[in-house]
Amino acid sequence: MTSGPVVQVADLRVTRGGVEVLHAVDLTVAAGELVGIVGPSGGGKSTLMRAIVGVQANVAGTVRVLGQEAGSPPVRGRVGYVTQSPSIYDDLTARENLEFFGAVQGVGRREVQAALTTVDLADAGDQVVGTMSGGQQSRVSLATALLGEPALLVLDEPTVGLDPVLRRSLWATFRALAEGGAAVLVSSHVMDEAERCDRIALLRRGHVLATGSPADLRERTGTDTVEAAFLALIDEAAA
Q1: Where are the domains of the chain?
Q2: Is the pLDDT reported for residue 1 higher than 60?
Q3: What does the alpha-carbon distance between residue 230 and residue 225 come to, in Å, rounded to a whole number?
Q4: Computed from CA positions of residues 136, 137, 138, 141, in that sequence, does the dihedral angle turn out positive or negative?
Q5: Which one, 17, 38, 166, 199, has the greatest CB density within 10 A?
Q6: 176-228 pLDDT per residue, tens
Q7: Which residue, among 211, 206, 204, has the nearest Cα to 234 in the 3D structure?
Q8: Given pLDDT bands bounded at 50, 70 and 90, which one contains residue 143?
């Protein structure tokens, strides 16, 4: 659809209740790239992701996905979106959930099984979601977003509340999806997760403090971790 960035955000501003909550945000995400939006809770990560998906109100600036306006009909079917709370039905099995959402997108049983396999739930497809662990439910939500082989995956805090083993497994899945050609955008308030990204945007109070690879940000600030780099950038901005 376009040879440029999958996501292009320029001078994005979002207001809520008359107050600006995102301030002149710029961001790009390329195909095959795993990009993290990292920062403390309440910093604007979910608002930014909603703007990229095209469901955020009171948006000014440029937000384009695959060369089209975010949320416009030509790109809706090319974007997979996972919210912080699992958007699935507890009284259905994992497979039934995927078949329901797949019917909306016109995908069949083969694609449903492929999505279950990708998130390592091929043997749990007939389990009722309400009886699953939190980690399994997160995987079902991710599987629904994979239906239709989206060009862009927008994952809002997908590992929150999960144990380290499940977090590691999910990040391996995110990496595999990016290596398969998808643009993957993941938000997190856990700084060590940023080390797994190709690039990160450090977001605080609606401002992007810096963007770059984890190594670039550590080098720029003369620190050893992304968390230390984030704190150094806060001090720099306050000086």
Answers
A1: 7-78+150-238, 89-149
A2: no
A3: 9
A4: positive
A5: 38
A6: 999 999 999 999 988 888 999 999 999 999 999 999 999 999 999 999 999 99
A7: 204
A8: very high
Residue 85's pLDDT band, with cuts at 50, 70 and 90, is confident
What are the tokens at 163?
């144990």
Torsion of CA 146, 149, 151, 152, to 10 degrees: -10
What three-state secondary structure class fits 14?
A: strand
Find where tokens 């795993």 sit: 34
Q: Which fold has domain 7-78+150-238?
A: Rossmann fold (3.40.50)
User: Which of 78, 59, 63, 40 has its CA nearest to residue 157?
Assistant: 40
Residue 211, amino acid: T
Residues β-bridged to residue 16: 19
Query: How many other CB atoms are there within 10 angstroms of residue 73's CB atom?
Result: 8
Terminus-to-terminus CA distance in the chain, angstroms? 44
